[in-house]
Every structure is written in C-alpha cells, then in structure tokens.
Design brief:
single chain; about 80 residues; two-stranded antiparallel ribbon; two-stranded antiparallel sheet; 1 helix; elongated
C-alpha cells in the first residue's frame, strides 16, 4: 500500500493549463488593484498613494523633503 496519495489518472495538459490560467488571472487582478497611482496636486506628477511625491517632495500640502539639498555620494568609509 502506498503511504501517500497517488493520482489514479494522468492530469491532462488542458486541465493543467486551465488551472494555471485561473491562478494567473487572479494574481494579476490582485496586483493591479494593489498599486494606486495618484496625481500630485502641486506638480502633477504620478505618485503612489499615501507617499511623498518624488518630484516636488510634498505630502498632503506640506514640504516634507528638501529637494534643493544635494546629497553627497559616500564612496569611502571614514574610520
């Protein structure tokens, strides 16, 4: 006797592809509904919902990021 479940018949290609197609469709709809892009009211650029705009640095009308400040690139670790 087998100790685990053994399929009685071979799974056809059509049945396998149908199962995968259903999974793919469901996953894609979840992903498209998860990402919400909104237009920034200040600069009009596309930004993720509930995040700071990367173009102007504002969130809900307030300046959160200083876009004029230059960030120096760290090339060496100072010990």
């Amino acid at each position: 006797m087998a100790k685990h479940a053994v399929p009685k018949k071979k799974t056809s290609k059509a049945r396998t592809k149908r199962r995968y197609g259903s999974f793919k469709t469901k996953t894609l709809t979840k992903l498209t509904n998860a990402i919400h892009l909104v237009t920034c009211p200040q600069c009009g650029a596309k930004a993720l919902n509930h995040t700071v705009c990367k173009q102007c640095g504002k969130y809900r009308g307030r300046q959160v990021l200083n876009m004029n400040k230059k960030v120096s690139k760290i090339t060496k670790i100072k010990a």
